[in-house]
Write a structure and sequence with these properties.
291 residues, 2 domains, two-stranded antiparallel sheet, two-stranded antiparallel ribbon, elongated
């Protein structure tokens, strides 16, 4: 997983123009258009034309490979409460998706989303081949998995739930995780085993990209302590004694600098001083002469 993420990061660095800028904005626009048309379509034919269907694709309806992405799992109808809740859901999708794109960059966020889409398609193909049915595909849990990714990056970030209630994103992610778990359990109890794996796929996509970082955050930090208490005063004295015991050829009579401590420093001898006295360049012309 760590090697895979490094490979993806290297790819993103080399191909900075890869991806779809503001991808989540286009997805939200697609959600809105499909939601409004489907809300006024009493026959339900419109959504049937968009759902992922292998049989339909084999008949030449190739748009189904992409169109299922824009099917929002929201309440039906165009009542005031339904529209408000749907708009809030779309806003949170856009907010989290845009935040991840700003953090990861357009290439990595595009890879994250496309990986989830491809995993859903492969899952539907496998189920169709071995189970004989095509599961209903949607990106609801893929979008909700972005809350996990955002919480892994900014666990202490606060958002206003319903624009009123301040809540940390990590608690929102826990609620989101409970929703994932309850959905899986209810689907299994109802015998909808194929639908139960959709949340698992979305969570696996998150764990594939953020699992290594999440594990590092949850792993307890190891504090290395010294084997015994160190007396820093005695250690400092020993260090100074060691420094003074070092052999040297030249030592400034004013500041005490030696050619061992400062190998690139030049030293000179004063001819006006009585005796043999050495000085560094800073003090050769600025010292009291020895008489």
């Amino acid at each position: 997983m760590k090697k895979l993420m490094r490979a993806i990061d290297r790819f993103c660095l080399k191909h900075r123009r890869f991806g779809i800028p503001r991808l989540m904005l286009y997805i939200i626009i697609g959600y809105s258009v499909v939601y409004l048309i489907a809300a006024t379509d009493r026959t339900g034919r419109f959504l049937q034309l968009l759902t992922f269907s292998i049989d339909g694709i084999l008949r030449g309806e190739v748009w189904r490979i992409i169109s299922w992405i824009f099917i929002p799992v929201a309440g039906s109808g165009i009542g005031m409460s339904t529209v408000i809740l749907t708009a809030l859901m779309f806003y949170f999708y856009y907010f989290i998706g845009t935040a991840l794109e700003n953090e990861w960059g357009t290439p990595k966020f595009t890879i994250y989303y496309l990986t989830g889409v491809v995993m859903h398609i492969l899952y539907a193909v496998i189920v169709r081949l071995f189970g004989g049915v095509t599961p209903f595909l949607h990106t609801n849990f893929l979008n909700l998995s972005m809350f996990f990714a955002f919480a892994a990056l900014y666990p202490e970030h606060r958002v206003l739930l319903f624009f009123i209630i301040p809540i940390k994103i990590k608690w929102l992610a826990l609620i989101n995780g409970a929703y994932f778990l309850i959905t899986v359990i209810v689907s299994v109890i109802q015998g909808q085993y194929f639908s139960a794996l959709i949340p698992v796929l979305a969570f696996f996509n998150f764990f594939l990209f953020c699992g290594y970082e999440l594990i590092n955050r949850l792993r307890p930090m190891r504090i290395h302590r010294p084997a015994k208490t160190v007396n820093f005063k005695e250690a400092a004295k020993k260090y100074r004694a060691t420094e003074e015991a070092r052999p040297y050829r030249h030592k400034c009579a004013v500041c005490g600098k030696t050619d061992t401590q400062y190998p690139h420093l030049e030293f000179r001898y004063c001819s006006r001083c009585n005796g043999y006295h050495c000085f560094c360049l800073e003090h050769i012309n600025n010292h009291v002469h020895f008489q």
